[in-house]
Amino acid sequence: MVVAMEPLDSLHRLRGVLRANAAFSAAGGIAALAAFAPIDDALGTGNRAVVALVGAGLVGFALFLVRAAGAEPRRLLRSAAIATASDVAWIATSALVLGTVDLNRSGVAALAAVAVVVAGFASSQLRLRRAASRIADLDTPVPERIDVEHPVAAPASSVWPLLTDHELYGRLAPNLSRVEVLDGEGEGMRRRCTDTRGRGWDETCTMWEEGHAFAVEVDTSDYPYPLTTMRGRWAVEPRGAGSVISMRFEFTPRAGLVGGVFAIAMLGAFRPVLHRIVRGWERQLANTGATADSGTASPAPRVQLP
What we know:
Elements: H1 7-34, H2 36-43, H3 48-69, H4 73-100, H5 105-132, E1 144-152, H6 156-163, H7 166-172, E2 176-183, E3 190-195, E4 200-209, E5 213-218, E6 227-239, E7 242-253, H8 257-287, E8 302-304
Antiparallel strand pairs: 1-7, 1-8, 2-3, 3-4, 4-5, 5-6, 6-7
Helix pairs in contact: 1-3, 1-4, 1-5, 2-3, 3-4, 3-8, 4-5
């Protein structure tokens, strides 16, 4: 049975496909620009200028995709349609070249392989764009999102104190040097985060459900990263004999290429960051004897990215 995705989930997945398309296009374009002569010799195109020109076009297309992936829904969907049409044009042009140009065997294989990959991007973009177009308000920006869910062999009552130990979080997160509470408790609490380069920013607790979940919002006025909004949520829920830790981070990169590139880097860099934090919590649980079986290694964190 095929389960339809929610429009917002489709939008996040569409962003991911556009960024993967951008990475693939940029890699091919840079290679063509840097080594157009040997590539021309290997493929047998007989026209080095065309190879270089195609490379420049691919780099430009990649930049377009990076900007498109971070745009508000309406513009993102419009750009995704342009990207898909461009991919279809690439496939059609490839078919025309294969049918009319006398390439060597390597050239035929390379052109056909690239066309297959591009067809995969076009198909995914078309499907996800159709699903994402059902979003009720296409003019309201949708932040980037990273979701994490990880089971632990310990009761929620033992996990909750670790999630709310702000100093411990500062020691476990590899991008931070410390986290200190400035004032307050629960909702309204303010904490100060300092990264490994000594740069700091304030965060305010916007939601507190004792024993279950809390959320913070970052004051981005002095944030050292190109983001206009940043929010985090940490929660723990009972499951069977243990519990499940979940984390959600939502952020909006600044408009422009720098923000778009940073969003891609952040989505990738959070994997090892979150892995280290969860492993640190598990070590604390094992040291306190809170786990059901501290001698059994837990599975690696499941990090779900758009």
